[in-house]
Each structure stands twice: as structure tokens, then as C-alpha cells.
Amino acid sequence: MAVAAHPRAWLERRRARRQADYWIAHGFESRCPWRVDELTSAGERKACARSLAQVVGELHGRKLPGAAPLQRAALCPWLELLERIHRRLLDGQPVTGIGMLAVQTLLTSPDSCLYSPTVDVEGELLRVLTKLEAR
């Protein structure tokens, strides 16, 4: 039987991740290589790709709507960009930590173009795709 980690250790790890994400988001990936490894791991890429596949499937009408209300009318014209991000996550080529943070923000932030009606959808999706590209 596995022993559960102490809640304090969990909180400290969460705090360290947040701090590392801040540095990565500001262009200092080399400062937190352990977090970049976590973000760019195959498992994390697959998890983000699954979430994005749900969004794409919902926009195509192949999947039932999820709990989060997508901005369908704003997203449909940019479906190809969403599919390109999805394919990029699964293509096996290197991605950047900052790009993976951008994908996570796209999927989870209420202010992202997926959920907010006041955001430039094309611009945001292009920024995510550009950030994913390894330098």
C-alpha cells in the first residue's frame, strides 16, 4: 500500500511549481529545468492533447458539450488553428516549457479565447502555436 505524502510536502511542491511557472513564463526556462521537464513530458502533452481533442470534437459536433461553456461562434472559424495545436502536441517534436504553459492557460483560464467572448481568438491561438515551437 502506498503511503500518502504529507500535505505540507504537497503544498510546498505546488508552491515551487507556481514559482517555476512564473520564471518560465517570463523567459527563464533555464532557471527551472525540472519544471520544464514536467511540462514537456509525454504524459503532460497527451493530457493537454486529450483536453484539446474534447474541445475540437465539441466544435465539430462529434462530442457532447462539456461542463465549460465554449465560445462556439467565435471558435468555429479558427478550428484549423485548434487542430494544428492539437497535432503539434502529439507530433513528438520538442516543445518549449513556455508553450506548454500557454496551452494549459488556453485550456484552463476563464479569460482564454475558448471561454471569453472578448478575446482575439486568432491572435491567441497563433501565440500559443508560436510559443510551442522549440527554439
If you had to describe this structure to a student in words, what would you say it looks like?
The protein has 135 residues and is an all-alpha fold. The protein has two domains: 1-36; 40-132, no CATH class. 63% of the residues lie in helices and 0% in strands. The protein contains seven helices and no strands. The longest helix has 19 residues, at 7-25. The protein is globular. The termini are far apart.
Order of helices and strands: HHHHHHH
* Count of discrete alpha- or pi-helical segments spanning 4 or more residues: 7
Helix content: 55-70%
Radius of gyration, CA atoms, in whole angstroms: 16 Å
Overall mean confidence score, pLDDT = 90
User: In one word, what is the shape?
Assistant: globular
Report the biggest beta sheet as strand number plus sense, adding barrel if it closes.
none
Total separate domains: 2
Model regions low in confidence, pLDDT < 50 over at least 5 residues: none
Q: Pairing-aware structural class of the strands and helices?
A: mainly alpha
In whole angstroms, how far apart are the ends?
Answer: 43 Å
- What is the beta-strand fraction? under 5%
The number of strands is 0
